[in-house]
Amino acid sequence: MLIEPLSRVHDRGSFDCGDPDVTDFLRKKALQDQERDLSRTMILIDERDPSERILGYHTLLMMQVRQDDVPNDRPRIKRGIPVVMLGQLGIDVSIQGRGFGDLLLMDAQARTAEVAEKVGIRALMLDARNERLARWYEKHDFVRFPNSLRMFKSISSSSCKAKAIHKRTLCT
């Protein structure tokens, strides 16, 4: 398995993760957003499959949040806090439940940690799509905003394991 940037050669049309919004984002918007420098989408493929079929993906983008919106954040700062937003993460229904979501999340964390070494970023944030996914992210040390499905993980808590996975091309 290989994680690489989304491009026009990849088969976006056959991807289906079971969530219409996440599926449609990859099919219709991810490449446009990437070409406009609004986000970056990394895809999981089987490098032995010549069809360029996408098995999973994640999308990262930059944003700012008010520090008051980040639970228990210190020290107090009176300006926007830079974060990386995990905008999307989806795994094709044909391979769900086999750990590839964990792999793509670790890749997203590693890419965020790598950027954070060069520029200021406070956290990796996301909006869980439902309660089941929020619990899955909590198992990966994401913390919920109060009364919300918005979640964050401090850059200082990024794991060495995530960084190690990002350094390798071969993912499984």
Structural features, described:
The protein is an alpha+beta fold and 172 residues long. The protein has a single domain, classed as 3-Layer(aba) Sandwich (Aminopeptidase). 28% of the residues lie in helices and 26% in strands. The protein contains 4 helices and 7 strands; from the N terminus they run βαβββαβαββα. The chain has a 7-stranded mixed β-sheet, sandwiched between helices. A hairpin with a 5-residue loop joins strand 6 and strand 7. The protein is globular, with a radius of gyration of 16 Å. The termini are close together. The C terminus is likely disordered.
Q: Could you tell me the number of beta strands?
A: 7
What is the helix fraction of residues, given as a range? Answer: 25-40%
Instruction: Examine the secondary-structure arrangement and name the CATH architecture.
Output: 3-Layer(aba) Sandwich
Figure out the total of helices.
4
Oligomer: single chain
| Mean model confidence by pLDDT | 86
Radius of gyration: 16 Å
Distance between the termini: 6 Å
Name the overall outline.
Answer: globular
Q: Please give the domain count.
A: 1
How would you characterize the largest beta sheet? Answer: 7 strands, mixed
The CATH superfamily is known as Gcn5-related N-acetyltransferase (GNAT)
CATH topology: Aminopeptidase
Low-confidence stretches: 159-172
* Structural class by sheet pairing and helices: alpha+beta
Could you tell me the strand content as a percent range? 25-35%
- What is the CATH class name? Alpha Beta
Question: Topology as H/E string?
Answer: EHEEEHEHEEH
